[in-house]
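Retro notes, item 3 of 5
We never archived the inputs for the magnesium ion complex last cycle. Fixing that now. Sequence and ligand:
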Amino acid sequence: MFLRKIELKNFRNYDSLKLDFNKNINIFIGNNAQGKTNILESIYFLSVTKSHRCNKDNYLIKNDCIFSKVVGEVENDGRKNTYEIIINSEGKRVSINNNVFKRISDYLSKINVVMFCPDDLEIIKGTPSDRRKFLNIEIGQISNEYVLYLAKYNKVLKTRNEYLKTENEKDFNYLDILTDELIDLNTKIYKYRKEFINDLNNYIVDIYKIISGKEDIKIKYDSLIDDEDNMINELHDKYDRVRESELNQKTTLIGVHRDDFSIYIDGEMINNYGSQGQHRMAILCLKLAEIEIYKNKYNINPIILLDDIFSELDKKKKANIIKYIDGDMQIFITSTDLNSISKRITKNADIFYIDDGKVEGEKDGTR
Ligand SMILES: Nc1ncnc2c1ncn2[C@@H]1O[C@H](COP(=O)(O)OP(=O)(O)O)[C@@H](O)[C@H]1O
Ligand SMILES: [Mg+2]
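Structure as it came back at the time:
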C-alpha cells in the first residue's frame, strides 16, 4: 500500500501543500517546530481519522482558518483511491473517491499505517486508557466490525451509567436488558482484543530476540474474562455480584472499558518498574510485531511512519528496524539531521526539506 500524493489545506502550519511521494522511502528534514511531524500526522489522520497526538480535531485546523482538508491518493494492488477528510466547526466529513460516508466506521480500516514516535512510551508508562486507545486504534485498522462493536458498547455503557445515576426507583428488568446487551458486546470486543494480543505474542518473542539477543518477553491481557469457554455465564455471575456496588456507586464497575494489558520482560512487569531502555525496546518490538501481523496474517503492507526515532537509537537498533521494515513497504521518516540516517537508506529516498510550513523537495536521493 502506497501513498502516492497528499494535499493539505489549512492543516496545522500548512496553508496549501501538494506532495508526490516515492513508493519506498521519503524523508523529511528540518529544524524543530517547522512542520515535519505535522506531515506524518496528516498521513496518520487520513488513515485513522484521528491525530496520534491530540484528541481534538480542531487543533489540526490552521490557526484563524475555518476548515482543514487532507486528501491522499493511495495505491493498493495497482488500484488507486482518493481519500479525503474535511474538518470544520460542525465536525468532520470523510469520503473515498468523492463518496461521502455517514459513518466513520465505514471509512476506517482501508489505509493501514504503523507509526513509531516518541509519544509511544505512553503505551507502557501511561494509563490503562492509553493502552486501550492503542488496542482500539490498531484493531480498528484491521476490522471495522470491531469499531462498530466498540461504538455500540460505549453507547450502552453511557445509557446504563445514566440510568444508574437516576434517583428514582430502579426498574430491574430494564437494567437487566442493558446488562445483557453489555455482556454480549463485552464478549465480542474481548475476542478481538484477545486475538490481537495473542498475535502480538506470536511475533514479539522472535523480534525481541533479534534486537536484544534475549527472548523472554510477553504481553499479558488483563481482562475481566477468565473462562473463555463460558464467557456469558461468567459475565452474568460477575455483573450479579457487583450489582449492589454499582447501585451504590451509580456507575458500571466492570467491563471491557476497564481492560488493560501489561508487558513482562524476564518475568517482571515493566510498565511501572522497567528502565527507559526496556520501555523503548518493548515498544519498538510491539510495533514491529504489529507490522508482522499485517504482513503475515492479513497480507497487507502497511505504510510506516517513523517520527524522530532515528536520532535516539543506536546504530545496531536502527539497522535491525530497517531489516524488518525494508522491502515492499513505504516508509516516511522525519529527522532534524540527515546524517543520523544511514546512507543505505538515504540513497534511495526522496528527501524533502521543511522550513516553517514550506517544503522543498529533492528527488531520488540526488544528495
Ligand atoms: N493549528 C495550528 N495552526 C498553525 N500552526 C500550528 C498549528 N498547530 C501546530 N502549529 C505549528 O506547527 C509547528 C510544529 O510542527 P511540528 O510538525 O510538530 O514540528 P517538527 O518539525 O518539530 O516536527 C509549530 O511551529 C506550531 O506552532
Ligand atoms: Mg516533530
